[in-house]
Amino acid sequence: MGIGDYLANDGLGYSTLWSIGCPFHCSFCGNTKFIANDPKYKKIRHPSARYIVDEIKGVRARYSHVSQVSFHDGGHPEREPGHPRLLQAAQPAGQDHGGR
Q1: Phi, psi (5° rounding) for residue 88?
Q2: Which are the contacts of 66, defined by CB distance < 8 A and separation ≥ 6?
Q3: Which of the two residues, 2 and 83, has the higher pLDDT score?
């Protein structure tokens, strides 16, 4: 299978970060080393939902073969208030997907 076949059938993924930082000290996680080096790493930081949506739209406009987006977050997305706003900002105007 050549690159053309791959792009035609599977596309490519785009990786980005939504958040960075973590207030926890889990024994299994490398974030504790980041906190040891910089105590400010405990604060969870992320850009606005509109910024992320615009970033992804810009990538798709430039690279139409991108078919998936992967978020590699340093924080805990289920605890962050911004993620529902990201989903809401990504909705096409006038459409409601019932929070899914």
Answers
A1: -65, -40
A2: 11, 12, 13, 14, 59, 60
A3: 2
